[in-house]
Structures are given as structure tokens and as C-alpha cells.
């Protein structure tokens, strides 16, 4: 079956521009996670949804970052007024259950802020 | 977020050799443990869950040492295709709660040489 998909795969933004990153999880997966991965680092947790409820957003680095999953399926990560330090790969993962379940990752969106 | 530490390597290992690396975690209340594999410029993929009793999958063996707070991954008869970054994941909470403690290590880089 189809895996997790993300779009766009690549995004170049000018500093100060707003961006929106989309994640389509595996159908039926309850949990959805967003991560930020800088070059040479492991993924850093950003936020976690169970269905449409955002249960944890403690990893969002600033109030410029906002995530939603209004119908409990597709999720959007929005970054307002992008800064150069926002340049990273943004990974989305979904899980059939919760934190103790296997996470299936999408290919990521590579964001470059100039 | 609680700390999870891995030796970044790189571990340079000849083909056919056995290699092992550890991942230490700081919170004794950690509940779930996983090893993920990440190839260059690809998304992480689950390699193994780590159970209290230890588990084996072909050439791979994972173990958990709660007393010393580390998990280990052993690869026997290493193949060129095992070259990748190995990420450990430690979680505190089960589904339904927040994602406090959902932490990836920075990864151990493994290079299998012919």
C-alpha cells in the first residue's frame, strides 16, 4: 500500500517568507509526528497528533511554527517569517497506534531559506 | 527533552566482521526503545524494536540493559549494504499521553568496507 507522502519535496524560500509543508499519512494511522532534521543530526521532535488532537507541541522551536491536522488525516506544518536557521529536512511520520508503535516516515521536505 | 546519546562514529568495519554499538539514555522511566536505520538523504526506517528480553532478527541482535540504561545493536557477518546511520529512539509515554521523552539519538555512522 501507499506509504507516507510529503510535499513539496524541496522548497527554497526567501528569508521572511511563509511556507506550508504537507504530510499525507498512511490511511488509518492514528498518530502523526513532525520532526526537524539538520544535517548530520538525528531527527528532532516537533509535534504529535493523535487523530485531529495535537497532544504535544513542545518541540516547536518558536511561535512561528504551527501545525494542524483538522480532519485527523492530512497534516500541514506552517512556518511563518522563515529564518535561515529554519533550513533543514522536515520529516513526517505516522503510526497505527501511538508512541510505542512503529513510525513510518515520509521522504521529507528539504527546506532551504536564503 | 531527555538525553539520548550515541557514538557518532564513523565505525569503519571490514565486510564479514561483527560490529556493535550502544545508545545510552538518561531517564530511567523510559518505556519503549527502537533502532532505526537511515541511509544517506533518505528517511529513517524501523530496523528493530528492542524488548526487555532482547531480540534477534537474522544477523541483527538488539538488547536492553535497564540497570545501566543503554540499548545495544549487534550486527554479525556485516554486508556492504549495512552501511548507513543507525538511530536509536527512546520514548517515555505510551499512546494517549504527551510525547515527552520521544527522543532520537544523533545516530551512529557505519561504513562497511570491502
Summarize this structure as a short list of keywords or feature phrases.
heterodimer, A: 114 residues, mainly beta, seven-stranded mixed β-sheet, four-stranded antiparallel β-sheet, 11 strands, 0% helix, B: 114 residues, five-stranded antiparallel β-sheet, 50% strand, globular
Describe what you observe in this structure.
- The complex is a heterodimer of chains A (114) and B (114).
- With 114 residues, chain A is mainly β.
- Helices cover 0% and strands 48% of the residues of chain A.
- Chain A has strands at 5-7, 10-13, 19-24, 31-37, 44-50, 53-56, 65-68, 75-79, 88-95, 104-105, 109-113.
- In chain A, strands 2, 4, 5, 6, 9, 10 and 11 form a seven-stranded mixed β-sheet that branches.
- In chain A, strand 7 (65-68) and strand 8 form a beta hairpin.
- Chain A starts with a strand and ends with a strand.
- With 114 residues, chain B is an all-beta fold.
- In chain B, strands 2, 4, 5, 9, 10 and 11 form a six-stranded mixed β-sheet that branches.
- Chain B is globular and about 40 Å long.
- In chain B, a hairpin with a 6-residue loop joins strand 4 (32-38) and strand 5.
- Chain B is built from no helices and eleven strands.
- The chains are: A mainly beta (114), B mainly beta (114).
Amino acid at each position: 500500500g501507499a506509504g507516507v507522502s510529503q510535499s513539496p519535496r524541496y522548497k527554497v524560500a526567501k528569508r521572511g517568507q511563509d511556507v506550508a509543508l504537507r504530510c499525507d499519512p498512511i490511511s488509518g494511522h492514528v498518530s502523526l509526528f513532525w520532526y526537524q532534521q539538520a544535517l548530520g543530526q538525528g531527527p528532532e521532535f516537533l509535534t504529535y497528533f493523535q487523530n485531529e488532537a495535537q497532544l504535544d507541541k513542545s518541540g516547536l522551536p518558536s511561535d512561528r511554527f504551527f501545525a494542524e491536522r483538522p480532519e485527523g488525516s492530512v497534516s500541514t506544518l506552517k512556518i511563518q517569517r522563515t529564518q535561515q536557521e529554519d533550513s533543514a529536512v522536515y520529516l513526517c511520520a505516522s503510526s497505527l497506534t501511538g508512541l510505542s508503535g512503529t513510525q513510518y516516515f515520509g521522504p521529507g521536505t528539504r527546506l532551504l531559506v536564503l | 527533552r531527555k538525553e539520548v546519546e550515541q557514538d557518532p562514529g564513523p565505525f569503519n568495519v571490514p565486510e564479514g566482521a561483527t560490529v556493535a554499538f550502544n545508545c545510552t539514555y538518561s531517564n530511567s522511566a523510559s518505556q519503549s526503545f527502537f533502532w532505526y536505520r537511515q541511509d544517506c538523504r533518505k528517511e529513517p526506517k524501523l530496523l528493530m524494536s528492542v524488548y526487555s528480553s532482547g531480540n534477534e532478527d537474522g544477523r541483527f541482535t538488539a538488547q536492553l540493559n535497564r540497570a545501566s540504561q543503554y540499548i545495544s545493536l549487534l550486527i554479525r557477518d556485516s554486508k556492504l549494504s549495512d552501511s548507513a546511520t543507525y538511530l536509536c529512539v527512546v520514548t517515555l509515554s505510551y499512546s494517549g499521553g504527551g510525547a515527552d521523552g520521544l527522543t532520537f539519538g544523533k545516530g551512529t555512522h557505519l561504513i562497511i568496507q570491502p
